[in-house]
Amino acid sequence: MPDPLAAQIKQLIAKTIRLEDVDVSAIPDDEPLVGSGLSIDSIDVLELVVVLEKEYGLKISSSEEARAALGSVSSLVAYIRAHCDPSRLPPLS
Amino acid sequence: MDQSPVSLAACECLTALGDTAQTQGALERGQGALELRPFGGAEGGDLVPLALIPGRPLDESSPPSWLPAVRTLMGRCPAGPWGGPRHPVFVTSSNFGVGGLFAFRRGGGREHVEFGSPEACVRLVRGELGWGPNVTTISHACVSSNLGLVLAGRHLAMGLADSALVFTFDFLSPFVAGGFYALKILNAGLPAPYRAQETGSIGLGDGAAFAVLERGEGEWRIEAQTLYNEMHHFTAFPADGSGFAACIEPLARLARGRRVWIKGHGTGTLDAGRLEAEAFARALPESPLVGWKGGLGHTLGSNGLVELAIAREAMRRGRIPGTVGTSAPTFAPNVAVGSLDGRAYDAVICASNAFGGAHAAVLLAHA
């Protein structure tokens, strides 16, 4: 059963960096977000950080923390679960 | 590389620590000007390290609150027909009055637009300082003032000028601080340039400076300057440090066998700090490396000329400030944490880097 938070994050990534012609569900959970087939660069990361902070009420404190959190969809899921108020997250089905 | 020596006839700066001598003295004592302030000024926000000219608010005002500081600094500039046919002025900045446009966007005060664009901002400065029309405006992120120095040197070398004035200014605003805050490299931590640690951070600082360049020999000589652009990535350098090496190597060849120290860029970010320290350690292993942005903050487009003025003062006084804000372990063994005896050296390489993969360096020698 796919993690609903992972699915939500993939939608958010696609919307934020305007991924076109990409099957969002096909974005891999464990591949690097930066430097992979998604062509996410550091400016995209900046936009993603701003959106993620707003969407999940996060406070990412440094570029190193941002880089670690945005390593992959899986690492992002883990980071958000560890730092976000659970009431903001989609229910686990 | 430009290798037509020019005389650095005058060079002064103004920072949050004071004038050139005050800044050099404070750094030598290990003192800094960075204070934790809200990045958004009166609108608040997380606390980040900023170094403002004493009494100057971060928020925009009209006329700009930095104008008195510019008048004070340029009061020390040698008189000359600046902006006249054989005496060009090169004005550089990475930000000009961009904070004014942001203030207009946020609050709607049309008075901010008057100084918001580079052209309007330089027109204001030119009017204040009484320059003629021979003024060139240059902006290239954090190597802006280095480009001004190179162009001034070329004008002299080509016989297009008898003397040249380079003026640079970068004053902080909520827009500028907010941009670096969004990148997360400006955060709650104080910068520790070249320190090997888990999290990097920078500070930002107000800064302005001028240099008067003349042809021929003088007490202070810019022996060579290099510029190099990696054309690699907007905010990242190649992991092998090749861009740093490409900029440093031409000057290192001139410096080998001489008593040279290095004033590096050293903002406090980890990747760039490591690449720079390692590149200098490879190219000039006997030369100590210091960085001053842990005390001054990063003065952005003006850092090259601001720190050149401090380097000249350090050599004049025979005391070279160490890397303020840093402690061991460092990225390379040549990083000097404490102050150095300037009498042991007769030349300095001052290096700067910028977003976009731009590198610049100057070899300054005392006759």
Defining key terms:
heterodimer; A: about 90 residues; mainly alpha; about 50% helix; about 0% strand; B: about 375 residues; alpha/beta; eleven-stranded mixed beta sheet; 10 helices; 16 strands; globular
List the helices and strands and how they pair.
The complex is a heterodimer of chains A (93) and B (367).
Chain A: H1 4-16, H2 42-56, H3 63-69, H4 73-83
Helix pairs in contact in A: 1-4
Chain B: E1 6-15, E2 18-19, H1 20-28, E3 35-38, E4 47-51, H2 67-74, E5 89-92, H3 98-107, H4 118-129, E6 135-138, H5 144-157, E7 163-170, H6 174-182, E8 204-205, E9 207-215, E10 220-229, H7 242-255, E11 260-263, H8 270-283, E12 289-290, H9 293-296, H10 303-317, E13 319-320, E14 340-341, E15 347-354, E16 358-366
Parallel strand pairs in B: 4-8, 5-6, 5-7, 11-12, 11-15
Antiparallel strand pairs in B: 1-2, 1-9, 1-10, 3-4, 7-9, 10-16, 13-14, 15-16
Structure, explained:
With 93 residues, chain A is mainly alpha-helical. Chain A has 4 helices and no strands. In chain A, helix 1 crosses helix 4 (73-83). The longest helix of chain A has 15 residues, at 42-56. By secondary structure, chain B is an alpha/beta fold. In chain B, the strands form 3 sheets. In chain B, strands 1, 2, 5, 6, 7, 9, 10, 11, 12, 15 and 16 form an 11-stranded mixed beta sheet that branches. In chain B, helix 1 packs across helix 10. The mean pLDDT of chain B is 95. Chains A and B meet through helix 2 and helix 3 of A and loops of B.
